[in-house]
Design a protein that fits this description.
By secondary structure, this protein is mainly β. The protein has 1 helix and 5 strands; from the N terminus they run E-E-E-H-E-E. Strands 1, 2, 3, 4 and 5 form a 5-stranded mixed sheet that branches. The structure holds zinc ion (ZN).
């Protein structure tokens, strides 16, 4: 076993070929579902499972930590905007 997908890797689930692309990935928190679009990931060409790099996961974890105070049921972000702002594209307020 290796430490995860790298260049030329195969999907651990189905053995399909991984290619770089972007994916929309939901993150389920205790009170909020955060949907992040355009996340750079290696995506299996067979089962479409996305695999994130450690750096990307760190970036998203940092964002999720900053979202703790927001009261919303669903937040939608674009990964590419995260460098400059944490304003969501859509925030569905919980009542
Ligand atoms: Zn696969």
């Amino acid at each position: 076993m290796t430490g995860g997908p790298g260049k030329g890797s195969r999907c651990p689930l189905c053995g399909g070929r991984l290619e770089w692309g972007t994916a929309t990935i939901p993150f389920v928190l205790p009170d909020t579902v955060v949907l992040i679009k355009e996340v750079p990931a290696e995506i299996c060409q067979s089962c479409h499972e996305p695999y994130l790099t450690g750096q990307t996961v760190d970036h998203i974890t940092d964002l999720l930590n900053r979202l703790r105070g927001l009261r919303a049921e669903v937040l939608i972000f674009s990964y590419t905007q995260l460098a400059s702002t944490v304003q969501p594209i859509v925030a569905a307020e919980s009542q």
